[in-house]
Amino acid sequence: MITRDDVLHIANLAKIQLSDEEVEKFKDEFQSILDYFDILDEVEEEIEPTFTVIQLRNVFREDAPGECLSREEAMMNAKHVENGYFKGPKVVE
Amino acid sequence: MDDVIIGLEVHVQLNRLKTKLFCSCPINYHDSEPNTHVCPVCLGMPGAMPVINKEAVKAAIKIALALNAEVQPFTVFDRKNYFYPDLPKGFQISQYDRPLALGGYVTIETEDGEKKIALKRIHMEEDPGKLSYKGSITLAKYSLIDYNRSGVPLLEIVTEPVMSSPKEARLFLNKLRIILEYLEVFDGNLEGAMRVDANISLKGGGRVEIKNISSFKGVERALSYEITRQRNLLRRGRVVLRETRHFDEVNNITVSLRSKEEEQDYRYFPEPDLVPIHTSELVDEVKDLLPEMPEEKRQRFIQQYEIGDNFAKVLVLDPKMADYFEEVALQLDAKLAASWIVDVLRGELNYRGWDFRVGWEKLRPEEMIRLLKYFVEEKITEKGVVEVIRTKLDEGGDIDAIIQSKGLFAIPKTEIERLCREAIEKNPKAVEDYKAGKKQAANYLVGYVMKVTRGRADPAETAKIIREMLSN
After folding, report:
1. What's the CATH code of the domain at A13?
2. Distance from CA of A8 to the nearest CA of B (A)
3. pTM of the model
4. Over the stretch A35-67, which tens digit does the pLDDT of each residue have?
5. Are the C-beta atoms of residues A11 and A17 closer than 8 Å to each other?
6. What is the count of structural domains for chain A?
7. Separation of alpha carbons B404 and B299, rounded Å
8. Which of B34, B36, B140 is closest, CB to CB, to A68?
9. Which tens digits make up the pLDDT trace of B185-200?
10. Which domain does A12 fall in, by range?
């Protein structure tokens, strides 16, 4: 059973805040998703797992340098920049 | 250290490639301004799609084969999800339960003989960007991010927990580096080329992971520190917590990272934007490209050139040094070549902080051959050869011009004989002493000749002439 704590744990990993109503809503939705996956229990065990639905393999690119963005283009939409760097949160206390 | 168990996770940049793992941004970013080697793919912009670099996969397979690992016929990429600003997408494209290769080993030489260090797995992933802080990390209020490194092809090589001392860990890393250099897929001189996470536990204690150590010396020091720290805890009857620690390279200590931050839940799932790789054709292609590895080369040198293992062992430490030796050995006596390269040239290069790639340019093999031929023909003394090598490395120039200008061409025998006579004439006291039985008085006369020739006369030859003259 999906608990309130499971939902809060996942919300924390995704760095989002949920209201009490949302927690309840997701609790039910997570549960129904997991129930849906129970269908897989009906599959015979020797069936190969599907990693992708695209029937392609070995799609490669040659090791040849291409065009990069200019730094101005790269940083155009960033709100927080400094001396050519993106600014981000501090991650070590 | 029977009670110590060490395992390593080594991150190796495939930095001799031209472009990143999933986009065509060049990876020669080391001397560049931040965020100048980036594109929508490695910046994680919406809608950008990764396409894998074929040469990166081949380089990874090459390494796996050289490390005796089993390349898996079928391999898949996964998303490793975590929020950290060095990953612009919010996940890292890595491999999880279908890695490129399993198993393998690296043989190291310990004091107790050879030891095989077993590998667990080898997988491919993208390097994250690089964070820095203005001023000190403790005072800074935010991080500065450079995504030039984001997406550089990275290989993670994971060992089994089978090493039993910090020294073994260093030997393993040294050997691994040599193998990677042989394969021409890796340049260990570039900053950040190899980064290590080390796991260490003592009997009766929890496993501690030390993250992101950037030098081999650092690995040895971090592990030594941990052994002392954990021993002290256990001796006092305290528990060693299972935790992640950070190595402080300045103070040579490890410090605990807050466990809350390290409680990771990566939620791996297959990367939907990349298709699986079937490796069999690539493996066939790569097998033909595998160069001679250090151990094979060492055996061949001993057989083909009849040099001692003491020389062969050292020569194969750097493929460029081995090539240098072969160039010279084809023209001269191989033992002589080995001795000069291992005992002299290697030391002179080390002293200047250079490897043989630099050495090759500073003193080309053909120049070394010319110089050593003069030595074999007794046109220059051993000491003279060393002086030419040093001058050539420091100042460059032509070998013959250096010998000329420093007056290093050996003095002809007739000239030495003349100087010996002069020594005897000018030092009657020494001659008297010698004849009175003080045999060491001859050294004084040899010294005189050495002094006036500024060391260019061969001391053994001079001593022989002096003794002959005095006994007549």
Report:
1. 1.10.20.60
2. 13
3. 0.83
4. 999 988 888 888 888 878 888 999 999 999 999
5. yes
6. 1
7. 40
8. B36
9. 999 989 899 999 999 9
10. 4-41
Please indicate whether, in this complex, the C-beta atoms of B54 and A51 are within 8 angstroms of each other.
no
Kindly report the nearest CA distance between residue A20 and chain B, in angstroms.
Answer: 23
All structural domains of chain B: 4-286 (no CATH), 294-405 (no CATH), 413-471 (1.10.10.410)
Q: Considering only A69-73, B116-120, B376-380, which range has the smallest mean pLDDT?
A: B376-380
Task: Judge whether A34 lies within some domain.
Answer: yes
Mutation target to probe the B interface, by most B beta carbons within 10 A, among A33, A79, A80, A90 is A90
Q: Are strands B52-53 and B194-202 parallel, antiparallel or unpaired?
A: unpaired
Write down the pLDDT at residue B357. Answer: 92
Question: In this complex, do A58 and B278 lie within 8 Å of one another by their Cβ atoms?
Answer: yes
Please report whether residue A14 resides in a domain.
Answer: yes
